[in-house]
């Protein structure tokens, strides 16, 4: 579970084409990074997959099922936002439990899932604090915890580390990569940061003005960039 296929997906805002016809396959369990300069359509593409924007044309399949017209809650995906979107008046425990409560799950099952997420993310010591009493990195982990308990078939991250300072960003890069290894769940990760792309991805999708310039492993892109744009962006000597 966790494959995502885009077939001839187009997104227009009024007359402006942001995503031209685009085909892309994300395999189950892959860590895929969308990278490209600001304004190239990374967030739009992620929001189309999440169902937070409607496609103008084309088809999105999730686990082989046509999900194009499914609302976000029915897609089995979890989006992690850069702004954390935590509830300031609730404890970490309650923030993580929130989606399960909304889904009507019984308390014992909620407790088990929250405890699992908290231990996986090293949040056990902070479980009764409120977001205001946490560091930026801890808040980001709570936001990830809230995604984990839903057991999504894929996680969608939109620049999750861009609010953190450089040292913390390095730590969180490692933590998210480790989380991917632990959970073995598909992750789609948007960033404008080449270092994040090169260090985290199984597969990098380089975007420029909505077009895919190249898809490949970090090594592929480094060794054989498709063009000068990719070479320049990835920092390849070619
Ligand atoms: P990125 O995440 O790569 O910085 P975005 O996906 O946010 O890029 O934006 C891609 C392009 O689409 C930009 O030119 C942006 O102005 C435009 N865009 C994004 N959302 C909207 C919207 N709701 N209405 C009109 N234009 C939009
Ligand atoms: Mg963006």
UniProtKB/TrEMBL annotation:
It is an enzyme of class 3 (hydrolase). One of its GO terms (molecular function) is ABC-type maltose transporter activity. Transmembrane segments: none annotated. Keywords: ATP-binding, Hydrolase, Nucleotide-binding, Sugar transport, Transport. GO terms for cellular component: ATP-binding cassette (ABC) transporter complex, substrate-binding subunit-containing; maltose transport complex. Residues 4-234 form the ABC transporter domain. Its EC number is 3.6.3.19. It comes from the Bacteria. This is Maltose/maltodextrin import ATP-binding protein MalK. It comes from Granulosicoccus antarcticus IMCC3135. The gene is malK_5.
């Amino acid at each position: 579970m966790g494959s995502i296929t885009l077939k001839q997906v187009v997104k227009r805002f009024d007359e402006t084409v942001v995503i031209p016809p685009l085909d892309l396959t994300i395999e189950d369990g892959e860590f895929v990074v969308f990278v490209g300069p600001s304004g190239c359509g990374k967030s739009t593409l992620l929001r189309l997959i999440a169902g937070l924007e409607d496609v103008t044309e084309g088809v999105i399949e999730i686990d082989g099922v046509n999900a194009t017209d499914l609302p976000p809650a029915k897609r089995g995906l979890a989006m992690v936002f850069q702004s954390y979107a935590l509830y300031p008046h609730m404890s970490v425990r309650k923030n993580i439990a929130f989606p399960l409560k909304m889904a009507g799950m019984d308390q014992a099952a909620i407790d088990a899932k929250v405890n699992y997420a908290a231990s996986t993310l090293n949040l056990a010591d902070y479980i009764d604090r409120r977001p205001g009493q946490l560091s930026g990195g801890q808040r980001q982990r709570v936001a990830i915890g809230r995604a984990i308990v839903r057991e999504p078939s894929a996680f969608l991250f939109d620049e999750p580390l861009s609010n953190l300072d450089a040292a913390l960003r390095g730590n969180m890069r490692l933590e998210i990569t480790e989380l991917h290894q632990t959970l073995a769940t598909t992750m789609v990760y948007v960033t404008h940061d080449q270092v994040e792309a090169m260090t985290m991805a199984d597969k990098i999708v380089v975007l420029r003005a909505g077009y895919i310039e190249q898809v490949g492993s970090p090594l592929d892109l480094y060794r054989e960039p498709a063009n000068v744009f990719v070479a320049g962006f990835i920092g390849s000597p070619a």
